[in-house]
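Practice problem: predict the structure.
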Amino acid sequence: MMDIVRLKFLSPLRIRLLLMVVAAMGLAGCKTGDHSAKPKADVFYPPAPEAPRIQYLTSISDEQDLGIQSSSFAEYVTGVKAPAAQKILKPYGAVLASGKIFVCDTGNRCVDIVDFEQKKIRLFYPRGMGKFGTPVNLAVDADGTRYVVDTGRKVVLVFGADETFRGAIGEGVKMHPTGVALSTDRIYVTDIEAHCVRVYDKASRKPVSTIPANPEADVDSEPGKLFIPVNLAVDQQGKVYVSDMGSCQVKIFAADGKHLRTIGGQGDLPGQFARPKGVAVDRAGRFYVVDAAAQVCQIFDAEGKLLLFFGESEGGGVSLVMPASVSVDYDHLALFQKYAAPDFALEYLVLITNQYGDHKVDVYGFGHKK
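Answer:
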């Protein structure tokens, strides 16, 4: 069992200053692609002398992070002007699937597809009925079907593995979707307009239920009431984890929608949240929550006990800057094994997106010392 690392969270004053800085960055633009900012030594959490459980592996912000030559070098060698390296501008949701990272990029207003085999970043801009407004989150099913949450169009757009448009979920319904997650036979969509998670049958895409069953009930009669549900995850048992930015909590529901437990509350102490966004869960029931204001990722056990949090650089050269989403992946360890320390055994990967700063998609490895 991991011990809690007692690092200092951001104080309320520092949070307010951070939001002021971010607002200024949004007006003036921010520097990207500074690859010199990457740490020169292995970075672990918790730091020594505690036993390491998380290692920062790498970050991906543009095609140079995939190993392609810089444009200037290619020009020098070939005498032909090379195209500029494709960049991820402002990522929100990101998942690993089929050897690629799919990134909802609100800056490019598209889905960036990071292809490790081709060492390229391709921008997916569907046309016609599937045209994007503002894609923010996505889920990719085992058969390659892609579900993209579009807050501009206020629907979930569905694309096949061949990238053909298959339809939209939520057309004709007054909703404001923000997150999407999948189980074997269900599609779960957070709706901040109706203060609930909408549950759909995967085969028919027809609505089945909502979580909670009565979104309009008051908090006394509905302990699982949701205020601003922004992101969610589903574990192997079908439990649904919802980050509720309105109450600064994570609320956990059984597969049938029954409220099981509530974690956190507003504050700047470990185990509390200021602006919870992305949430993910691993196969052991540990769940991850990123906080865009405190700029950390917290890990809880299946019972809701805080195990560890990370994100502040503490001089290590790695920090989260307005993190938006977190996802867990067991299938692509081989792509990142080369970044792991020789004495650190990777068990699975953790992806975290940063909306600002030089590291757009950070890749961490959860594991243990050999």
